[in-house]
Amino acid sequence: MIKLIALDLDGTIVNEALEVSPRTLAMLQRVQDEKGVKVVVATGRMFPSSLPFARRLGLTTPVISYQGAMIRDIAERLDRIHDHPIMFHQTIEMDVARAIVDFVHEERLHTNVYVNDHLFTSHWNPNSVYYQNISGVVPQEAPNLHEILTGAPSKIMIIDDRADEIVARLKTHFSQDVSICKSRTNFCEIVHTAVSKWNAIQHLMSLWNIQASEVMAIGDHENDLSMITAAGVGVAMGNAPDNVKALANYVTDPVGEDGAANAIEKFVYGHLPLEDVHVPS
Hints:
By secondary structure, the chain is an alpha/beta fold. It contains nine helices and 14 strands. It has helices spanning 22-35, 47-56, 94-107, 126-135, 163-174, 197-208, 225-230, 242-245, 259-268, and strands spanning 4-7, 38-41, 63-65, 70-72, 86-89, 111-115, 118-121, 140-141, 155-159, 178-184, 187-192, 215-219, 233-236, 250-251. The protein has a six-stranded mixed β-sheet, with helices on one face. The chain has a five-stranded parallel β-sheet with strand order 2-1-12-13-14. Strands 3-4-5 form a three-stranded antiparallel β-sheet, with helices on both faces. α1 (22-35) packs parallel to α9 (259-268).
């Protein structure tokens, strides 16, 4: 029995137009009302960018943001976003953050730094405009990122078409201290080494007495692999890269074809027996 569904946002239930389809909205409401399943958003977005989607979905469960670095309680509707209680928060160590900032300055990389739920960007360019449009958050320009490190960052993100190369180089220098992955083809995400979506989900599982076998996780990119590979039912979207699909229990339809809703219907409502699902060795 599935008791918890963990959902990525972008590319999973949120399409390129930043919309959630009526079918997906209806399915998520139905699975909560009829089956009592807990639905949790687990996203790389910052919390202020995640909350509107959680509200749009009608959720009151905690929101997992920053790739799992933060969990906030949204059970109450509070006037100020930053007043929502923090249940968990694991930041990047300050000395490591400073070293990464040195690296991006030397390489002149377009970089976002997230400190205390505020977004700072190294410089304005087309990537800045694109990110502002998809996140709904206006970055504060900070040419010297060291100056805004008044607190340890929840996440650092580099936006660059050479993301694969940058990920490899970062891992060479910082793999002992941070976790590095891609969330889009050009998004390089950096969080504390202990942070992952699955670790954050486990925090909620322990509160709700839910086992891994009772969790369904749905995602579309490498940053979702921790939950896709650990959950009892790990689902990759049809628009996911091949390496993500290869590690999932099941590959559903793309986001534009309501893949998440289709997978929920198959598994939660028994339209696809679990014994018929391929589980990678």
